[in-house]
Amino acid sequence: MFSSELLPVNIAGQWRLGGGDAYESLYPATGEPIARLNAVSVADVDEAIERAHHAFMTSGWAQKLPHERAAVLHRVAHLIREQGETLAQKQRLDNGKPINETRALVASAAGTFQFFAAALETLEETITPSRGPFVTMSVHEPMGVVAAITPWNSPIASEAQKLAPALAAGNAVVVKPAEVTPLMALELARICEEAGVPKGIVSVLPGKGSVIGDAITKHPLVKRVSFTGGTTTGKHIAHIAADKMMPVSLELGGKSPTMVLEDADLDHAVSGVLYGIFSSSGESCIAGSRLFVARSIYDEFLTRLAEGANALRVGDPASEQTQMGPLITAKHREGIERYVELGVSEGGRIRTGGVRPHGNGRDKGYFYTPTILEGLTNNARISQEEIFGPVLVAMPFDNEEELIAQANDSVYALAAGVWSRDFKRAWKLGRAVQAGTVWVNTYKQFSVSTPFGGWRDSGLGREKGREGIFQYMEQKSMYWGT
Ligand code: NAD
């Protein structure tokens, strides 16, 4: 698979080598290089944005009728599906997720383009009630050049989530993928071009966030940034946006509580909690990383959970049997190990995991075992800070009042899970917990038609849903004299 030839990047439709430093993208399961490319330079960023602006003004993309742009987006969805297996295998190499997960992400990217194509065709401009000798209506216009800045944990799905509605709205889009996972954004740009999106309307600019992401965010021709990533980076982007009076949407970190009540279906809850924290190696903004279990079932539940965690198949992402792959980089694994040490120094006990697994081809990759810590309170640093890895902190609770207070005691409020057979209790808890998404008797399920986003330090704004398209448009009110 590895070719030592440098991969071209996409500077507003020009496929050429980036002007920045060369680097290698590594396969997290083996540490071996899978691609070499040059990051873009700040001069490339300026050129891409100016060309993208020119394409927005002259290519006719913004002026196409909704059904014409929708037809192109439907072709994008079709091409993603047609090339699905190749894309899923490439993404596995890019980010180390198990093949079953990358297949699902590729399918979700196709579904996202399909959804926003359909949404575009059905958007209505509204006539507002008249309050004088005029007719008023509210219309929406594309913004121009918008930027999509994405993290490394769910490439293709995160990029599609921004690219599809931004293109549907008629904009030019500059995508800045995470430095360590550049391949899927480049593939999407190629597919968009193949589907008929005019050259220059999509750019992909890989490189360091603090240099390239910063230059994109500050550029005067960039009219909106849609960002997914860490809360510290999100706040930095929000400051720049405030200076430019630029709207932003921020999908940020999480430390999501999962609550298991004593009347829960335990088989169902055990597998749901395991999936919620350990799928994607816990490298998921919505990972259910704080577990609260009713004290009366705590011991039994933890015994079953630990057995389940031990039984998870951690290993080769190419195998369909694998349930957990490696972590993204060696450095990220070291950070997770430091968090587990911190948890122990704060008085925590490792119930299971907490080591690097060996053998079965795992020695060179960045593997780590599914880890459960007990004996800590919700105030411990490891209970409060986002670890972004396969580490669960489990705590018993005595009553619902205490449960809600602890679940909501976090700077984050992205997601939450409730496991109970009692509809009324689950409803009450689901309404009382502060979170952008609440799952009841399930976890980590997604639908593109349902808005997604966070409260507090977990973000600003919502993606997905039919309304998601309006993020990328300016609203205009028109008065017609009668
Ligand atoms: P990160 O904030 O380090 O990077 C995200 C992106 O921002 C990357 O492309 C990066 O290069 C870029 N970037 C970094 N510094 C920048 C700057 N100064 N200006 C502009 N861009 C900059 O995050 P990460 O480590 O790639 O991803 C993990 C984080 O993402 C976790 O906190 C996770 O919870 C969060 N996340 C959130 C969601 C969500 O939907 N809420 C989804 C996935 C990941």
Automatic annotation (TrEMBL):
Domain Aldehyde dehydrogenase: 20-477
Entry annotation: catalytic residues: E251
Listed PROSITE patterns: ALDEHYDE_DEHYDR_CYS, ALDEHYDE_DEHYDR_GLU
Gene3D superfamilies: Aldehyde Dehydrogenase, Chain A, domain 1, Aldehyde Dehydrogenase, Chain A, domain 2
Keywords: Oxidoreductase
Family indicated by similarity: Belongs to the aldehyde dehydrogenase family.
Protein name: Aldehyde dehydrogenase
Record organism: Variovorax humicola
